Amino acid sequence: MTKITLSKKTLADQPKKYTRLILTEDAPTWHRLVECTDGTLEYRMGTGKQKNITPRKFRTLVRSIVQAAQSHQIEHLAIHLGSMSCPQLEKEGNEWFYRTLAENLTLAAYTFTKYKSTKPKTKQLQEITVCGPIHKKEADAFTVGLIVGAAANITRDIANTSADDMTPALLGKAATQAVAGTNASVKVLGEKELQKLKMGLLLAVGKGTRHETKLIVMEYWGAGKPTKNETSKAKQPIVFVGKGVTYDTGGLNVKPSGFMHDMHMDMSGGAAVIGAIAAAAKMKLKKNVIGIIPAAENAISDSAMRAGDIVTAMNGKTVEVLHTDAEGRMVLADALTYSERYNPKAILDVATLTGAALAALGQQASAIMTKDQKLETHLRELGEKSGDLVWPLPLWDEYQAPIKSVRADLCNIASNFSRFGGTIEGGAFLQNFAPKKVPWAHIDMAPRMDAIASDKLTKGATGEPVRLLVRFAEEY
């Protein structure tokens, strides 16, 4: 694990063991590792014209610095960036700058080695120190960035873990470990409790496996838990709901070869909720935030749910299962109904829901769907601010017609098996279960489940949208 710290010393005053980063306005492809006459090492790196560095480019630059240090086997790296005289970064303010710096240093330094049998033979990046005097507010922002980055890395650890080692029950334990030592609490409901709650959709998804289906509930009352008759809006919690399908075979509508091997990450939405609650608790955020993770394994067996089954949701609606691989919306539906008991001020659900989201947006942004225009705008702005980019798709009433069932209230996919608008179809289904008169948005993070080359991150889970969720909890 790379240690990331602040130092009041200037770059020149750092001990000789540190390689000093020197940024220039040369092309970003320009790199030099130089030994100076005094024996110190300098890593000189081009950024292009600093006036052209946007917040998006800055995040990529920070990650590129870490990647370059790793590739050159630099063990101790000293950097001094400040706002780098970049006008577009100065607009964001110094607190944003130092928080974003810390977040992205932490994300870029992450590696997942749980299943490696041998240690790497190359030298590893042990330490990054950020040099120069900064004000207390900036230092505090840097600390927050380290917390949020570490929480996103917890999310990545959970999502990268093999399904054998991250069953629904073990996901509950991971949630408990993530908030250990904080004021957040975790309770894990088992199948008997879910049956009493009449969570028929969640239970149906987990019918085919020997691993018991769970509902993981995380509570953080940073603003104080409201009393039974209290109506204070300040104490109304924000609720995050995350899909926790710990492995998805597709069920009896089995996924084809090449589309199943990474389905241990189908609980990335649930993992992100765990990370967000952990960050809020460790930041001691003065807000109330609830995390709800419906956890099940969608397996194949003689007891698995079948296409054509009709099951009853917690809110009483009946659902005809036309496709067993449209299971994520089913587990989320019951969790959304469960969220009503918290009298939430807003609800965001997060899920790796549809491959169609990648067809719509590529792999650069998550899709968001909501009928609340203010909420949509706010999420887009927070996406730019945090780096967890999102883009809206429509959720018009016309999208309800295709999911009406002849035999039941709803189908879990379009009744004509349409190949079109699959991402919107998932959001339209969930709209039937979100509490009325509560601002709600659905985030389909399937495009951001797995890191791509331009992310400048190690291959595997991205840890998104933890940064977005934390910003939302802070600012909504």
Topology:
Blueprint: E1 3-7, E2 19-24, E3 31-35, E4 41-46, H1 55-71, E5 76-79, H2 87-90, H3 94-108, E6 127-131, H4 136-160, H5 168-178, E7 185-189, H6 191-197, H7 200-205, E8 214-221, E9 238-242, E10 244-248, H8 268-282, E11 288-298, E12 310-312, E13 318-320, H9 328-338, E14 346-351, H10 356-361, E15 366-369, H11 373-386, E16 390-392, E17 410-411, H12 422-431, E18 440-444, H13 466-475
Parallel strand pairs: 1-6, 2-4, 2-5, 5-6, 9-11, 9-14, 10-11, 13-17, 14-18, 15-16
Antiparallel strand pairs: 3-4, 7-8, 8-11, 12-13, 15-18
Helix pairs in contact: 1-3, 3-4, 4-8, 5-8, 8-13, 9-12, 11-13
Description:
This protein is α/β, with parallel strands linked by helices and 476 residues long. It has 13 helices and 18 strands. It has helices at residues 55-71, 87-90, 94-108, 136-160, 168-178, 191-197, 200-205, 268-282, 328-338, 356-361, 373-386, 422-431, 466-475, and strands spanning 3-7, 19-24, 31-35, 41-46, 76-79, 127-131, 185-189, 214-221, 238-242, 244-248, 288-298, 310-312, 318-320, 346-351, 366-369, 390-392, 410-411, 440-444. A hairpin with a 5-residue loop joins strand 12 (310-312) and strand 13 (318-320). Helix 5 packs parallel to helix 8, helix 8 crosses helix 13 (466-475) and helix 11 (373-386) packs across helix 13. It is globular, with a radius of gyration of 23 Å.
